[in-house]
Specification:
About 60% of the residues lie in helices and about 5% in strands. With about 500 residues, it is mainly alpha-helical. It has a 5-stranded parallel β-sheet with strand order 2-3-1-4-5, sandwiched between helices.
Length: about 500
């Protein structure tokens, strides 16, 4: 059947959506679905535009319509599942992957997607069942073999994990992700069994494979420009800048907000652990790397840094609503905690919009931070592309924490530094100090934070680490790798000194 819509209109809508202009794409898609009400793909794209415009209810209606129109299209159903996953709606994503697998009895991808979702939710037995279905379809599938090894490693079966990964790598897997991810995973096993040199060799191989798949030069240039802009802006502000900003946005003009805490620091400094400890308190609603700041606040300041009080209040409302959208339960009456390490470099922006913000900064020995970042296999963007080399990790650390050292000298805002090493040494003492800083008294549930973490869908790359009690194994881990870290130690030394390491 010939579509009722014009191909040119659809091409224009897609161009806007892919270009990031979802607000202009949305009305075009609204027109297109009226013209072609039975075009499932158009409804799917309409939902994508709505999601990008932060209209989750509209996105859900559009995707539901697409699922109704083409319920047996396993590829489309899986795509919608991934969109729900990106929208932090794991239950709907789960339903889509189940539906896609039923629609394609020989389909590997929907079953692997289901396994990934279940593993991140710590539903390991169910994830293993999904992987078993993949292996029954194709015993040699790269993704299924890799993911089976990952599940074994999560269950502490290190010898079996190592055997499977070495067998997999010996077959020279064709799947590009598996080729480097298997090396990252094997490096984790080698680290746990004190074979440090081989672990570093495998990490180096994995990162070379990643570089071959991505134009990392473009990402690094984007990062360097942004980092230099943030550094220059922060360095140019006087220590009393918050008083100056307060004149333009005085307290009498601010709409009241719930108690709000920003939890930052460099990635791999213990921010996820702190977030889970705080979230175990019944008076706290903590969010794991929500997108509210990046999607609501930062784009506005790319347009103009001169905003009226009325506009700042609008942004405050939109940001808080975005946080509520990410929470399963109503956070009324609770302290809101936005845990987000990378935006630490944008603290001036947070404080411009939220002068009442309380700032909690996680610290950890910079050498342990650098090593831990090097071990991470995470999706590349313009920030974590730096994790492909130790030298770039040291630069990233200096960029981000250098801004914090400047901002903490500013007058007139509430901040607290907390050390990972102190938390794992005495959870009750340091956790209590942090809890008091956010305005609450220690609650016994916080000592058992990991019980709640097991049942939560977490989005940090370190989601696995907070599902068990605190442990000391990661303290001073860098010493086993000291000879590999020698080239970057001079760059980290000033921060070791500044933070008392």
């Amino acid at each position: 059947m010939t579509p009722a819509h014009s191909p040119n209109e659809l091409a224009r809508a897609r161009q806007l959506l892919l270009g990031g202009d979802s607000d202009r794409a949305l009305p075009l898609y609204e027109k297109l679905v009226r013209q072609s009400p039975r075009a499932a793909v158009v409804w799917y794209e309409y939902g994508n535009a709505a999601a990008k415009s932060r209209q989750p209810a509209l996105a859900d209606r559009a995707w539901s319509k697409a699922l109704e129109l083409d319920s047996l299209n396993a590829e489309l159903v899986s795509l919608i599942g991934h969109q729900y996953q990106a929208m932090r709606n794991p239950s709907r994503a789960h339903a889509c992957f189940i539906q896609a697998a039923a629609a394609d009895p020989r389909g590997i991808n929907p079953r692997i997607s289901l396994a990934v979702l279940l593993e991140k939710a710590n539903r390991l037995d169910e994830a293993r069942q999904a992987v078993s279905e993949c292996l029954a379809i194709d015993p040699h599938d790269d993704q299924a073999r890799y993911f089976l090894a990952l599940l074994d490693r999560r269950e502490g079966k290190l010898e079996e994990t190592e055997r499977q990964l070495r067998d997999l790598l010996a077959t020279e897997p064709r799947h590009p992700y598996v080729r480097y991810a298997a090396r990252y995973e094997l490096a984790q096993v080698l680290d746990r069994t004190d074979r440090y040199d081989e672990a570093m060799r495998l990490l180096s191989e994995a990162k070379e494979l990643v570089r071959a798949l991505t134009d990392t030069g473009v990402l690094l240039r984007d990062y360097d420009q942004s980092a230099e802009s943030a550094r220059r802006f922060t360095a140019n502000q006087p220590k009393n800048i918050l008083k100056t900003w307060a004149k333009f946005f005085p307290e009498r003009k601010r709409e009241a907000i719930p108690p709000l805490v920003f939890l930052g620091g460099h990635p791999r400094s213990g921010t996820t652990l702190l977030e889970q400890i705080l979230d175990a308190h019944p008076g706290v609603a903590a969010l794991d790397e929500p997108v509210a700041f990046m999607e609501v606040l930062q784009p506005e300041f790319h347009k103009s840094s001169q905003l009226s009080s009325a506009r700042v209040n609008v942004l405050r409302r939109q940001y808080l609503q975005a946080l509520r959208d990410d929470l399963e339960a109503d956070p009324a009456g609770k302290v809101l905690v936005d845990k987000n390490p990378s935006p630490t470099a944008r603290l001036p922006l947070w404080l411009r919009v939220f002068p009442e913000l309380r700032v909690l900064i996680a610290l950890r020995d910079p050498r342990d931070v650098a090593l831990s970042c090097y071990f991470q296999n995470i999706r590349l963007n313009s920030a974590n592309v730096n994790f492909l080399s130790l030298e770039r990790i040291a630069k990233h650390y200096a960029d981000l924490m250098g801004i914090w050292l400047m901002v903490r000298e500013w007058e007139g805002f509430a901040w607290l530094e907390t050390r990972y090493e102190d938390t794992v040494a005495d959870l009750r003492k340091e956790g209590g100090r942090v809890t008091e800083f956010v305005g609450l008294a220690w609650h016994p549930d916080q000592a058992r934070y990991y019980e709640k973490s097991v049942g939560k869908q977490l989005y940090s790359p370190t989601y696995q680490d907070v599902t068990r009690p605190v442990y000391q194994r990661s303290v001073a881990r860098w010493r086993a790798y000291e000879k590999h870290l020698v080239p970057i130690l001079p760059a980290l030394e000033p921060f070791c000194r500044a933070f008392g390491y």
